[in-house]
Design goal:
Oligomer: single chain
Radius of gyration: 28 Å
Number of strands: 2
Structural class: mainly alpha
Number of domains: 3
Strand order of the largest sheet: 1-2
Largest sheet: 2 strands, parallel
Shape: elongated
């Protein structure tokens, strides 16, 4: 049952639904599509924008925005563990399909997720707090340790080559 807004006065429930969609930052086109799909009502751009521009509905839209934004942790992918578990599944799939480059890319993404993009900067900030003599001593020890590590895997080669650069 498709009804044009000019022929049909929206119920309070549907008016609130439009405000809720605005509060979820949905574009007008998506609100129109959702209203047609979920309620069988055809709306015009003007009728949807009416709610966004009308002061009467602004309070309800702002409240919906606050609720929407504050519920960010309800989205599963907002949790680091969920993201890491999904990376694990992607890694297993890539590995089982023999797509080594894809598996490595997933591992790199998971490492970045766990350690963060700025982990090097954090380490650099820590090193800046020590004297030049301490830095040189640590560098000497690291180089000595790297020389004594047996190179048995590709990963160890990458670690060693990055440290000598």
């Amino acid at each position: 049952m498709s009804t044009d807004i000019r022929e049909y006065k929206l119920s309070k429930e549907l008016q609130h639904k439009i405000c809720e969609y605005h509060g979820q930052f949905l574009p007008t086109v998506e609100i129109i599509a959702k209203m047609k799909e979920e309620h069988g009502i055809t709306l015009s751009n003007t009728s949807v924008m009416f709610y966004k521009k009308n002061k009467k509905w602004k309070v309800l839209i702002d409240k919906a925005k606050d609720q929407y934004v504050s519920a960010i942790m309800e989205v599963p992918i907002a949790h680091k563990r969920v993201r890491l578990e999904r990376y694990e599944k992607l890694y297993d799939t890539a590995k089982n399909l023999g797509k080594i480059e894809s598996a490595r890319a997933v591992l790199a993404s998971a490492r970045e997720e766990l350690e963060g993009k700025n982990s090097i900067n954090i380490q650099m900030n820590r090193i800046e707090l020590i004297s030049d003599d301490e830095i040189n001593e640590r560098l000497r020890r690291i180089k000595t340790e790297l020389v004594t590590i047996p190179v048995e895997s590709e990963e160890a080669c990458l670690i060693e080559s990055k440290a000598t650069q």
